[in-house]
């Protein structure tokens, strides 16, 4: 459905800010333009919540999470940046796999199933988008998500949906 992405992100932040504050993590949002896009709200909310939750969980004391929104003619972009513990290079290719968790003592102390990013990735792919990670150990992590403003289903996809498969 046509969705105001700014509102969707604000709702997520409203829910997660109290959790972040308990850990003295500051969350900020940067967005310049209203973004309207055809998305599955539930899936997109879950996808972005997972990224921000990770930014809070794998952070340092008095750290920050910065979310920024952008848009052009074809896509909108969501960037989630944190000042956290970072992800070792050799793990970066695997973190989107189900149940994969970085085997560092600090992230092991923190609870989790290792499903969050797998869910995020599949939700982004359902929207025909792309997700990337940039990270430096000990410095922080940035996830970027790019999603088409409007995706027109192929005839094949429409037929599959109509037949309920
Ligand atoms: P769940 O999200 O299911 O509660 P999880 O957070 O462990 O558990 P994912 O969200 O899939 O699982 O993340 C996989 C692993 O990638 C994490 O266990 C952590 O080691 C690493 N990771 C993910 N996001 C970050 C981040 N922002 N900073 C540092 N490490 C991260
Ligand atoms: Mg997670």
UniProtKB/TrEMBL annotation:
Domain Histidine kinase: 1-151
Taxonomic superkingdom: Bacteria
Location relative to the cell: Membrane
Full protein name: histidine kinase
Full protein segment contained here: 324 to 488 of 488
């Amino acid at each position: 459905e046509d969705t105001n992405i700014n509102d969707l992100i604000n709702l997520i932040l409203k829910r997660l800010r109290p959790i972040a504050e308990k850990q003295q993590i500051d969350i900020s949002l940067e967005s310049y333009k209203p973004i309207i896009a055809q998305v599955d709200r539930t899936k997109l909310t879950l996808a972005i919540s997972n990224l921000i939750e990770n930014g809070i969980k794998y952070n340092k004391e008095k750290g920050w999470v910065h979310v920024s929104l952008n848009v052009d003619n074809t896509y909108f972009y969501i960037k989630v940046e944190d000042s956290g513990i970072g992800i070792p290079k050799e793990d970066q290719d695997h973190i989107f796999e189900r149940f994969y968790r970085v085997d560092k003592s600090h992230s092991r102390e923190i609870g989790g199933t290792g499903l969050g990013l797998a869910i995020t990735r599949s939700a982004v792919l359902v929207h025909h988008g792309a997700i990337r990670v940039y990270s430096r150990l000990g410095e922080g992590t940035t996830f970027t998500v790019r999603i088409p403003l409007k995706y027109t289903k192929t005839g094949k996809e429409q037929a599959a949906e109509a037949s309920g498969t």
